[in-house]
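**User:** My hope is that you can spare some time for a protein that puzzles me. I have put the entry right below:
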Amino acid sequence: MFNHLLIPLDGSRLAESVLPAAGAVARRFGSTVTLLHIVERTPPGEVHGERHLTTVTEAESYLAEVAAREFPSGAATMHVHGPDEAGVAESIARHADELGSALIVLCTHGQGGARELIYGSVAQQVLSHGSVPVLLVWPGPAALVFACNRVLVPLDGSEPSEAALPAAETLARAFGGRLHLLTVVPTVATVSSARSPAALFLPIATAVALDLEEQETQIYLDSLAARLRQDGLDAGAEVGRGDPAWEVAAVAERLDADLMVMATHGRSGMSAVWAGSVAIRIMARCRRPMLLVRAPGPPDNL
């Protein structure tokens, strides 16, 4: 499934934090790798406090050094593009499609700057312009070892959210990991704005409805987990209660999840992800690798 990886790099050590994870995936799947640098039309002099790559020649030399150091077997090729009129996210998505990439690996402090990627902007925009899954990796000591022993898959009970399952299954099989399915049912105090009028004026009836929803959701998740076990995977399921972003982050910490896999419609901004920008809010609370998979259907306009 992940036969070709695209790794955008901006020349900084922070952006290179993705290389151990990308290398681990490439080894498991025998993937080829393309290192990408997009020369911006008006590049900044520095990025993350380091000298920025501003010319094609400079970028080619840098990518060749990274390829020799990180992929000595020759599995990596280099591609430098630019200067480009398009934005960084659009260029990444376009190159992923042109090169036939199966996975884009991005550092959360990589192309586009720390603030943008922390809030999901670049990753969401990449998905809005294409359909290739995006693996987000936080920089730091934890990024040095990438594993999929415990894979958390948040679902919202809808068919589009299940778009995350094939990728999660593939990684769990390759790494010998366990899948943990999770759906969060709100409480009366944490219902979405669309349901809040009923919760305000009919709190008892709303509480009863939510309790029934919890029971139905557990049946739904148990059936998914049973199917996964029949297919030879180690899988479990649970229903949480409360605010989805808080609960998903809490479960990820409790399980010590190595990876979260979620479906997104590729939207950006406050209308961004499954269940009202839940993935973006999770990223702000839980610094664990996250694989975002494009859900069926068109994205909202950016």
Summary: The first strand starts at residue 4 and ends at 8. The mean pLDDT is 81. Residues 203-230 form the longest helix (28 residues).
